[in-house]
Write a structure and sequence with these properties.
By secondary structure, this protein is an alpha/beta fold. It has one domain (about 5-240): P-loop containing nucleotide triphosphate hydrolases (Rossmann fold, 3-Layer(aba) Sandwich). The protein is built from ten helices and eight strands. It has an eight-stranded mixed sheet, with helices on both faces. Helix 2 (about 30-40) crosses helix 10 (about 230-240). Bound molecules: adenosine-5'-triphosphate and magnesium ion. Magnesium ion (MG) binds near residues 57 and 128.
Length: about 240
């Protein structure tokens, strides 16, 4: 039997011009800070939304200091607008409590959230993805056919090895990739290994982001986040996205 939410979800995604899933495969490489900063940066250019699909480790609501209120309901759920970005996260419903769910339950919550959220005229939807290639990643591949993926890696071989597997899957499925960002670089030029990785998959290396020691003290308020060098760097990189 067809789940009507699947149809609605596919239609909702298809109606959005640019969907930018921020993925890696590897955990802790900066997907949440990059996706949140990117959505704030893109909000100057187009009607932008941010969807946090990391139900186990939701983070974007902290970076955006989202309210604790349930979002308004009006023929669907209206995302809260923060810094010009329409934002949706499971954190509104869990009230920041743990959500110990298994794969099938994840898929169910994903479909529910997608089916009820009103993105309306959103042109650009950035998606913060959890680490790994399990159900969230597979659900994304199943329902989002028009994504322009953004890949995040650190310079570490432990990251590039996993990222290469993610790239392999995306390339095999012939999905569009905006490019790759090397994050938390300890040298200005980054690591040649990452450039080679990008070249080997014919993917754009969009830039290196330094490791900023003072980033953490500015997390927790979107206004302070905007004042960081990290945000400026993402803003600069965002101009290289072919929107
Ligand atoms: N360029 C950077 N400079 C300094 N700290 C950074 C930088 N990028 C990310 N961080 C820090 O690294 C940590 C991990 O970042 P983040 O949570 O965004 O990673 P993630 O890939 O989303 O992790 P997960 O896989 O758990 O979702 C955070 O504490 C973040 O502040
Ligand atoms: Mg994250």
């Amino acid at each position: 039997m067809i789940d009507p939410r699947e149809v609605v979800s596919r239609e909702k995604f298809a109606a959005i011009k640019y969907i930018i899933p921020v993925v890696s495969g590897k955990g802790g490489v900066g997907k949440s800070v990059v996706s949140t900063a990117l959505s704030l940066a893109l909000a100057d250019r187009c009607k932008t939304g941010l969807l946090d699909l990391d139900f186990w480790g939701a983070s974007a609501h902290i970076l955006l200091n989202a309210s604790n209120e349930f979002p308004e309901e009006e023929k669907g759920i209206l995302p809260e607008e923060i810094g010009g970005v329409k934002f949706m996260s499971v954190a509104y419903y869990t009230q920041d409590n743990p959500l110990p769910i298994r794969g099938r339950e994840y898929s169910d919550a994903f479909l529910e959230l997608m089916a009820v959220t009103r993105w309306d005229d959103t042109e650009c939807l950035v998606i913060d993805m959890p680490p790994g290639m399990a159900d969230p990643f597979l659900d994304l591949l199943q329902y989002v056919k028009n994504g322009n993926f953004l890949i995040i890696t650190t310079s570490s071989i432990l990251s590039s090895n996993i990222v290469s597997k993610t790239l392999k899957i995306l390339k095999e499925l012939d999905l569009k990739i905006f490019g790759l960002i090397e994050n938390m670089c300890l040298t200005e030029d980054g690591n040649s290994r990452i450039r080679e990785l990008a070249n080997s998959f014919n993917v754009k290396h969009l830039g290196n982001i330094p490791y900023y020691q003072d980033l953490d003290i500015n997390l927790g308020s979107w206004q302070d986040f905007l004042s960081t060098d990290f945000f400026q760097k993402i803003k600069e990189i965002s101009t290289r996205l072919e929107l």
